[in-house]
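Question thread 4412

I'm putting together a teaching handout and wanted feedback from people who do this every day. The idea is simple: show students a protein as raw sequence, then show them the structure tokens that encode its fold, then repeat with a second protein so they can compare. Below is the first pair exactly as I plan to print it.
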Amino acid sequence: MNKDEKVSEEQLNAFIDGELEPEEVSNVYDEAEQSAELDQRLCKQRKLKELVKLAYRDVPEPKRRSHVRRMPSSVLGLAMVASVLLVLGASIGLFLHDFLQQKSPTAGYYTAGNPQTVGTMENYILHVASGDPEHIKRALQTAQDLLSSAEPGAPRRVEIVANEQGLNLLRSDITQFKNEIRYLANENVVFYACSKSIQRLEEKGVVVKLVPEAIPGYTALDRVVLRMKDGWEYIKI
């Protein structure tokens, strides 16, 4: 740790993983308020953790063998899957490390509950993974706020990607927000329905019907990484 740093990398990682005591968490927040450099480190660590979690959610679970006699093959299969996950995690980590180093100092991980940072960049991708109507409503409101806060003559591009339970936003037989979706789509907000989440539901026998504005051609991870490589800011709702 540099002499000017009051929060080490170990403490920062423990903070992100929720392993610190309440008093220590409070101290980190206090330090972040006083240090733009520490606040930026927090943003990068949070973004890295969210994207790695998102990557692992998109990896299919291995099929289990039902016969005891085939156990050696199952163990081998699980070992192979574990190896693939390890390589995937390492690859994502290396990619994100290089990617974060290339981004400008103002780029970071934002949440809809942090209004001080929302609205300062040009383009945003919002990620909805919760089916809670309040979370979905917050995502739609955040999209509207981002459009409204754009500088005159400098239109802002906004996309919303939904996966897991957040797919309820874009399912025509479930969503309560068809009018809001239609309005935002007319304002050039683009909606993406995660293809992996759709596949999982269909494998369970669920017929997935999407609103006309939804585009199902990407996984959530693919879309988020693609837009972040383009310089967009990522907001987890």
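The second pair follows. I'd like the answer to focus on this one:
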Amino acid sequence: MAAVRIVIPDDSPPVISGTPALERIRASAETIVHTSPPDSEDDLIRRLRDAHTVVNIRGYCKFTARVLESAHGALRHLAIWGTGTDNVDLAAARRLGIVVSNTPNTATDAIAEHCLALLLAVARRLPHLDATVKRGEWERGMLFQCLGKTLGIIGTGAIGTRFAELGRVIGMRVIAWTLHPDPAKARHGGFAYTPTLEALLEEADVVSLHLRSSPETRGLLGAAQFARMRPGSIFINTARGDIVDEAALAQALRAGKLGGAGIDVFLKEPITNDAPLLGCDTAVLTPHTAGTTPEALVNGLNLCAENVTRFLAEGKVVHRVV
């Protein structure tokens, strides 16, 4: 019987390299770690050759049907570090009998805190005011106060629900809309669901996006939706870039329809020089880093290692997507 091989095709920039989680994985089977991105789909296919288990660190690796079919035969388990699986053709994985696991809820607190940081940075114009003071200027003006305002949460999974809690702590009224509402969660979390997404957009002073990328959600928020939002309102996105029409958001910001935006995720990552949001002075942008705290990284890597080692030992994973 051939030896089991584990391949990490995409630890760039390094996340798992040099960690106890990687040492745990190495102890279970031969492990190959690539610390540069694959330069093409064919290069990714070459890296996955003879892999029983693949550990996916970065979303730029796309596990298309072609990639999975090329690896089929040896490949039994694709272990995702992180929650998102939009870089994986899940239907192909299911058809080929490849187990896909992920590590949900390991960065919930970190991402919710980042949402709050983005909200306050936009509301209080912190990056702009910091820059003016450092230039020797003394620019003052009216700022946005969160107390008493309405926070609208789109998507009430773990992160959305946690940010709803933080919003309530700073004195905001919280409403929510999601594809699959949970009345018990709303009662426990102290928020109310709106009947439609449009109702939320029209009522909220701050809108924060927390949906997963899926065929149902891609492109969900565009020009029509931003037009419904209240004048001067704030938009926050730490979910996925492809849910939002970035050009439409940028237009709403430049036109003064929205008061500002805090964005951690983009359609193209790393962000390109022609990205529409780069020209928006009222947007605070961060490089998809909301979940990168030491605590969140350790939690996620340890759960990923647990998925890998448990599957090798028992044929089971802690959290199975497919």
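Top answer:
Good format. For the second protein you could add a caption like this: The domain at 5-106+294-314 is CATH 3.40.50.720 (Rossmann fold). The chain has a mean pLDDT of 97.
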